[in-house]
Every structure is written in structure tokens, then in C-alpha cells.
Amino acid sequence: MDRLIFVFVFCFLVSCDTGTYEEYRSFKNDIWHADSVVVFEYSINDTTKLYNIDLNVRYTIDYKFQNLFLFLTGSLKDTLDIKLKEKDGTPLGKGLTDIREITVNIAENKKYEKRGRHVLNIEQAMRYGDEESILQLEDIKDVGLIIFEHE
After folding, report:
1. What pLDDT digit, counting tens, does each position of 112-122 carry?
2. What residue ranges define each of the domains in the chain, with the CATH number in brackets?
């Protein structure tokens, strides 16, 4: 009987919707390939609430550029220019080792019109000089998406 109660309580707690989604996608060898689109799939169950959406980028201090350009498609459409370093090369973000983390709010007070599954695609859009794109963007560890109810 105790085991049955435990299973019931566990299932109830797991099924509760906390209103928060957080997920990360890591890059093998810290290289984000130009043809590698990061896809986040999430569900929105309450269309009466407003949501904030943050994007986290973890990178190493060896990252060669000052900014990171990203294309967003799907449930949000935007082009982001995220500043990762100062002009003098000083890394920005949280972290004490060679890894830094930057959090950027990409939507505030977003209202979803439909319940259910939503998708956000993120593509690195870095260019250098005359190159059409940087095919292998080095020193990007991972990208995370955090969606939480606006309070």
C-alpha cells in the first residue's frame, strides 16, 4: 500500500505544470556548424498567461569574435546580435573559469494564441569578411532556452 501511495504522489508531482521550460543543446567539440539548426520543441498549456523567454549561450573565452549573430524562426522570428566580448576582448557574462554564460531576454510578456506544441529554431548566422558564412563556429559550448510565466 505504501508503494502505491508513493507511486501516486510521484506521478502527481511529475505531472504538475510548473510553467517553466528549460532545455539546452550542446555542440560536439564546441563547434556550431552553419548547417546545424538548434530545435527546441515545447508545449504551452495556458494561453491566458504571459511568458518571458530567455536564451542562454555558453561559450569559451577563446571565442574569436565580439558578437554572435543568430536567426530565430518558428514561434519567434528575429535576428539577434548578442555581444559576448568587449572591444578589448574581455569576455562578458557569468563565470569564473574559461566558460562564460550570457542570458538574453528574447521575448517578454509573450502571449500564445494556441495551446499545445510550439517550435523555436535557432541558426548561427556568423559571417567574416567576404565569406558567405562561417561553416564551423568554434568555442560555442551550448545554447539553452528558458520559458517561464511572467509575474
Report:
1. 999 999 999 99
2. 20-149 (2.60.120)
